[in-house]
Amino acid sequence: MAKDGWLAKVDETVLGTDDFQEIRREVQPIAGMWPAFAQGIGLMPSDVREIELAQRGDPSRCLDSAIEKWLNQGYNTERFGLPSWKGIAMGIKQCGNPALAKRIAESHPKPTSQPALATVAKKEPTSQPALATVAKKGMPTLFINVICVPQWVMLCHGIECIDVDGTMIA
Fold first, then answer.
1. Residue 43 in 3-state DSSP?
2. What is the pLDDT of residue 3?
3. CA of 72: how far to CAs of 38, 91, 123, 139, 152, in Å?
4. Cα separation of 83 and 67, whole Å?
5. pTM of the entire structure?
6. Residue 30 in contact with residue 131, Cβ under 8 Å?
């Protein structure tokens, strides 16, 4: 496994503002290195300067502001991804604390068997829900109820959707 293979095992579930307190507890040890952490999670140097001025250089308050901005996606999400524990671990690693980054990674592993989820609807309009099977190789089968609408919609790729009569939906 690669030197940083542990990063591939970190939970990538999107975090939100409800997760602030837990994130804050986890990253408190690097408060003094908050500028490097902030840039490691995707904030721009201009964001770091703005936060530092607004919080008058107080490391704890600056860290809080950086986390809030990150959770509210005030950064380049295309380049750095959405807020997740993996992003936190990468930011902490970048600011020079790989031991803390690994500890966070171990505390927040990817879910081991997460069923594939999709929203599926059949082509034939009807007001009756239909039962469909959503399956992905190597994953548990998930049975979902779908409401039929004029056009089918598939939000996840790489997933087979099979109608109850065995017909492939998408």
1. coil
2. 64
3. 13, 16, 37, 32, 32
4. 10
5. 0.64
6. no
